[in-house]
Specification:
The complex is a heterodimer of chains A (82) and B (385). By secondary structure, chain A is mostly helical. Chain A has one domain: Orthogonal Bundle (Non-ribosomal Peptide Synthetase Peptidyl Carrier Protein, Chain A). Chain A contains three helices and no strands. The longest helix of chain A has 16 residues. The two termini of chain A are 20 Å apart. With 385 residues, chain B is of the alpha+beta class. In chain B, a hairpin with a 2-residue loop joins strand 2 and strand 3. In chain B, helix 3 crosses helix 6, helix 6 runs antiparallel to helix 11 and helix 9 runs antiparallel to helix 12. The two termini of chain B are 29 Å apart. The chains are: A mainly alpha (82), B alpha+beta (385). Chains A and B meet through helix 2 of A and helix 6, helix 9 and helix 12 of B.
């Protein structure tokens, strides 16, 4: 999952560095993620993982790091399975 | 009784007395701003513990509206100052330098300006080209092509820049620089259609200050948690004042006409009814926005949410559009008497001032941002909370 997230961050995040070089907990906004790019990234995540981000996850924190994104995806998957 | 409004009554009267001269000459409303300082209203939003008025944003908005009815330039300067104060309060608490500066804003009634735009970023205040260049405990900054409202009259300016020379354009911070710490070189004039007293000239801003004057919070947080909401709400309050005064003038015209022609209402009476409907929409838009902000301030995730950003952007779009529609109705009602600049029904200055609403942060830019957010955020289909 983390590799796929990193690929999508590279494709959609418009960061100043490659996603492979940043840690799971590194602040994506500090490496150039904008709110515009965060939406594009969310759409790519939805398409790739076949999920929908609920409104309560549509805040800055959800896309603040690779780990935060993975947490959201796991939470959505867990809810779908329940 | 509303204490801030009572204290503001004299300021409103002063603003009214000089409004035409301020507009005609495109000069800073020095008398009204001095009256604001004398009434200690520049510290209205600062908590009591730091020596301020401890007022709610709604009280500040009410005063913006009262001022907007008389002198839109004074009202907008007051609003823009309070937007900076709101950021200082929300993000400067807990920082020794910023807390002491808050006290000084109260004691000395310092007028705060804003340098968040820059030449070359296409009006997007969430991008910077210039950077804070740190050298030990000091930073230097040089920002070109900044449009700084009342910059020449500001006692301190809050300026944005990239965190460091190697940071991406969106990784911004904000710092406070006092008048003795910055230099302004005028590069552009302000001979504008309306809001002529705001003196929103272009400058090259340069200065240096201790690094402790940089806010610890990222500018992204400052922008979304205090600036976005307070700007759109207080600007809207100003425009509501401008529009409501225009409509009150039009109503005066209709009433005078009705006394002369008791046989039936003039055609303008229907327009007045129609326009009061728009005025009500404008009011509830702003009041609902103030409530939404007060609610979001209790929950950081809500404050950072897309739904909150959508709501605040819509407040701005709605009130900027409605203000122009309402003033246009006032003009249609009063006819030539409204079109002329020297009658009790004149709404020319109102219209010119209100036209700024759709271009101070262009509505088209906001629609573009909104359309992006709406790729994610669902339409809110509830009536209540």
């Amino acid at each position: 999952m983390f590799d796929t997230i990193r690929r999508l961050v590279d494709e959609q995040g418009r960061l100043s560095v490659a996603a492979a070089t940043i840690g799971d907990d590194a602040d994506l906004y500090a490496t150039g993620l904008t709110s515009f790019a965060a939406v594009q990234l969310m759409l790519a995540l939805e398409e790739t993982f076949d999920v929908e981000f609920p409104d309560r996850m549509l805040n800055r924190r959800s896309f603040s790091s690779i780990a935060a994104i993975a947490n959201c995806l796991q939470e959505i998957k867990a809810e779908e399975a329940a | 009784m509303n204490a801030p409004l009572d204290r503001g009554a004299n300021v409103v009267a002063t603003a009214a007395r000089h409004a035409d001269d301020v507009d005609r000459k495109g000069r800073f409303p020095v008398e009204a701003v001095q009256a604001l300082k004398d009434a200690r209203l520049l510290a209205l939003l600062i908590p009591v513990e730091f020596g301020g008025g401890g007022a709610a944003l709604a009280d500040v908005a009410e005063l913006c509206t009262s001022l907007g009815q008389q002198c839109a330039s004074t009202a907008m300067i007051f609003a823009m100052h309070q937007i900076k104060v709101a950021s200082l309060v929300a993000h400067g608490r807990g920082a020794a330098w910023h807390e002491s500066f808050m006290r000084r804003v109260c004691d000395e009634q310092l007028l705060l300006g804003s340098a968040t735009t820059e030449g070359g970023v296409g009006g997007n205040l969430r991008n910077s080209i210039c950077a804070f260049e740190r050298d030990g405990d000091i930073f230097r900054i040089a920002k070109e092509g900044a449009l700084i409202s009342y910059g020449a009259y500001s006692d301190a300016i809050l300026v944005t820049a990239r965190r460091a020379a190697d940071a991406p354009p969106s990784d911004q911070q904000m710092a406070v620089l006092e008048k003795s710490q910055f230099r302004l070189e005028r590069t552009g004039s302000w001979d504008a259609l309306g809001m002529r007293g705001t003196c929103s000239e272009g400058f090259t801003f340069s200065g240096q200050a201790p690094t402790e004057q940089i806010f610890a919070h990222d500018f992204a947080e400052i922008a979304s948690q205090s600036m976005l909401a307070t700007a759109h709400l207080l600007w809207s309050a100003v425009w509501f004042g401008v529009a409501s005064d225009a409509l009150a003038r039009a109503q005066g015209f209709v009433r005078k006409d009705a006394r002369r022609h008791p046989d039936g209402p003039a055609p303008g009476a229907l327009r007045l009814a129609e326009a009061t409907n728009k005025l009500q929409l404008m009011r509830v838009n702003i009041v609902e926005g103030l409530k939404r902000f007060a609610k979001a301030q209790k929950n950081e995730d809500d404050l950072n949410s897309m739904s909150f950003a959508v709501a605040m952007n819509n407040v701005k779009i709605g009130s900027s559009q409605l203000s122009i529609e309402i003033i246009n109705h006032a003009l249609l009602i009063a006819g030539i008497a409204g079109y002329k600049n020297d009658t009790p029904y004149s709404v020319g200055r109102h219209m010119r001032d209100a036209l700024s609403a759709q271009v101070m942060i262009s509505n088209d830019r906001i629609f573009t941002n909104l359309s992006n957010l709406l790729l994610a955020q669902r339409i809110d289909q509830r009536l209540g909370d």
